[in-house]
Design goal:
Layout lengths: L1 E3 L3 E9 L19 E7 L7 E8 L4 E7 L4 E3 L8 E7 L11 E9 L15 E10 L6 E4 L17 E4 L3
Length: 169
């Protein structure tokens, strides 16, 4: 689910999950290797060469960056300002033998983080984005995408295939 106001973009993920796993605990750790969710945001859909990435695990650890295409040049030193995360776990984290129910993650992303490409949206603005989920750990992982990247292997980093966020009242 997503909402917006004059200060933030809000995204809520609700994940059914029978085995909740997340080992990474520090900012910019590779959270995508855990049970994690992602949002890739392009405030200027007329270009597909740059977008912002937020990858967040069930612990509420953020891995943020700017991606420059083609070639997938990742600027990991980029840090978003003022992002707020909250998580809820219905189960036991990293207890591999039991049966969990799921988890949720909420993120608030201040508009000021997108100043390099765009002003904050107004009613009628359209941005490109993809919303993804990694479930499980190797070798049993699967990925879900809001907008299908149409790739032969799981790869959400195809900005030409991002969906459209239309900002309405």
């Amino acid at each position: 689910r997503s909402l917006w106001d004059d200060k933030n973009l809000y995204v809520l993920y609700e994940c059914e999950d029978a085995d909740i796993v997340a080992f990474h605990t520090e900012h910019d750790d590779p959270t995508y290797l855990d049970d994690a969710v992602e949002i890739f945001i392009n405030p200027m859909p007329s270009q597909t060469s740059m977008y912002y990435g937020l990858e967040m695990n069930v612990r509420g650890v953020l891995y943020d960056y700017v991606m420059y295409q083609p070639g997938g040049h990742l600027f990991k030193q980029f840090d978003l300002r003022g992002v707020k995360l909250a998580t809820y776990i219905d189960g036991t984290l990293n207890m591999r033998g039991d049966k969990d129910k799921g988890w949720s993650l909420e993120v608030a992303i201040p508009w000021e983080n997108f100043d390099a490409l765009s002003k904050p949206p107004v009613v009628g603005s359209v941005w490109a984005a993809n919303i993804n989920r990694w479930d499980g750990v190797e070798p049993n992982r699967r990925m879900s995408n809001w907008s299908n990247p149409m790739a032969p292997t799981p790869n959400p980093h195809i900005p030409e295939r991002f969906g459209r966020l239309t900002f309405v009242e």
